[in-house]
Every structure is written in structure tokens, then in C-alpha cells.
Amino acid sequence: MGTWGLVAEAVVPVFIVIALGTVFGRRGKLNIKPFVDFIIYVAMPALIVKALVSHPVSLKMMVMTGTGTLFVVGFVGGLAILYQRLSGDHGRDILIGALFANAANLPLPLAHFAFGTEALSYQVIYMTVSVVLLYSLGVGIAAGGGKAGLRQLVRLPLLYAAGLGIVLSTNSLELPSMVMRPVSMVGDTAIPLLLFSLGYRIGAIKLSDIWSALPIVALRVLGGAAAGLSFVWLFSPPEPVARAVLLGCAMPSAVQSFVLCAKFCDSSDRAAAAVFLSTLFGFLYIPFVVGWLA
């Protein structure tokens, strides 16, 4: 299968589920708050545990890939803060949409089909660190920081799920099947619900949201590429680590960034527009990224 076919297999299903949510949102009224709460407090923690247990990795390689993830987030964060100071737009959705890339439903299948099982394991590490940062640093930003943000953070089961998953993965341990099966079932609902909720919100997007989301898209895509290339140039990591970082930083904005804005901010429409636009653009440039990494 060609590069475009791999991208189509990963991206087209994403847009189908988003479109279903958009159609449903235009036809009727739905309170998506219970969906958002279920995603954050139940489905995503289960998905993290499932991903780490299914792809055990060594602690050394986890640290190396995690360092790359932290570098990318810090680099793009610096660019986003600089943009905020220059533009005077201090919306929290700018930081959240720019810092956190889609780390699961696009890069994981691309890594698996294009580069094999070993590459998938490294991509899972990148995903895990990204998700931990999203639901720690991201929640702190979305909630406005301070004690309120810290209280929101320590209440999130995602952090504890990540800790459990890391312990199990680095020690090649498994949960009993009677526990792992329901965890897997619940985790499998996370991405479809994320995409459906995003589609529902897209139905309410205005043209002004599209235009105002363009800086977020530029920071995420162009800033992410600059961050990944800088990491590889400065640290010369092993090829599997470099590939995981470069593929991960090239991804569009994370769907979860919209979820955080929907729960903690008043700017979820622009966040939804940034996710939609960056994913749409991703269909055009990601094939070239995959071909270059191959």
C-alpha cells in the first residue's frame, strides 16, 4: 500500500466519525458534557493502560523518547507564548491547541503500517508522554493555573492510569484477563467519542472561528516541525527515537485539546476549528512526512 493509502486509512475514518457528529449536532440538541466527562475520567485512562500494557518497552528507551516529547512541547510552547505577547491574544486555547498534537489515532496506525511493530512501540511511548502532559500541564493551562488548576489535576485518573501503565510496561507485567478485557473495551470507546464530540462542536463553528484558529494551526504544524528537526539536530537520537519524535511532532492538534477547552474554558469553538483545520491540512502534508521518514 502506498503512502497516500496509509494516510487515507488513518485519516478518512477520522473525518467520517467527525462528520457523523456534525450531522447529528445540526439535526438535534445534545448535551455533550456527559460525553466529555466520560472521556476524561473513564475512557482515556483505560486507553492509556491498554496501550502501554499491549506494547511493553524498556525504561531507557521510554526516557529517550519522552525527552524528545518534552523538548517538542517546550519548543512549541515558547513560540506560542511569543505569539501571544506579540499579538495580544492571550487565549488559553492557543497554548493548548499548539502544544499538544494528535498522538494516537493518526500516528499510531501510520507508524504500524509504514514502519512496523517496533516503530509502533516507540510511537506509543510518544503518545503516553504527550497524553500525560496534556492532562497535567494542559489541564493546568485550561483551568487557569493556580490552586484551582492543581485541584483539577490531582482529581484526574489519567495521571494514575499513566503511572500504572508505565510500571506494568517497563516490567513486562500484565493485568488479569478479567480486568484487562473491560479496560480494553472501555478504552476502545475513547477515540470514537472524542471525534464524535468534536464533530458535534464543529456544527456550531462560525467563520470568525476559522480565521482565528489559523495561528494555532501554524504554531502546531510549522512550530512542531521546527521543534522535531531541532531535537534531532541537537541530540542525534537513535533512528527509532528520531522517527517517533519527527512523526509525532508533525501531527495536527490533538482532539483532546478541544475536550479540555470544552470542559475548562469558554473557547471550545476556536479549539474545535483548530483541530479540524490542522487535521484537514494533515491529509495533504503527512504523506510527504511519512515518505521522508521511510
Which residues form runs of ≥5 with pLDDT under 50? Answer: none
What is the second-level CATH architecture? Up-down Bundle
DSSP strand (E) fraction?
under 5%
Share of helical residues: over 70%
Main sheet attributes: strand count, strand direction, barrel closure: none
Instruction: Spell the H/E element sequence.
Output: HHHHHHHHHHHHHH
Q: Identify the overall geometry.
A: globular
Q: In angstroms, what separates the terminal alpha carbons?
A: 13 Å
Q: How many beta-strand elements?
A: 0
The CATH class assignment is Mainly Alpha
Structural class call reads: mainly alpha
Say what the CATH topology is: Na+/H+ antiporter like fold
In DSSP terms, counting alpha (H) and pi (I) runs of 4 or more, how many helices? 14
Rg calculated over all Cα atoms = 18 Å
Q: Average pLDDT, to the nearest integer?
A: 82
Number of domains: 1
Description:
- This protein is mainly alpha-helical and about 290 residues long.
- It has a single domain (about 5-294), classed as Up-down Bundle (Na+/H+ antiporter like fold), CATH 1.20.1530.
- Helices cover about 80% and strands about 0% of the residues.
- The protein contains 14 helices and no strands.
- It has helices spanning about 5-25, 35-55, 60-85, 90-100, 105-115, 115-140, 145-155, 155-170, 175-185, 190-200, 205-235, 240-250, 255-265, 270-294.
- Helix 3 (about 60-85) packs antiparallel against helix 4 and helix 13 runs antiparallel to helix 14.
- The chain is globular.
- The model has no long low-confidence stretch (mean pLDDT about 80).
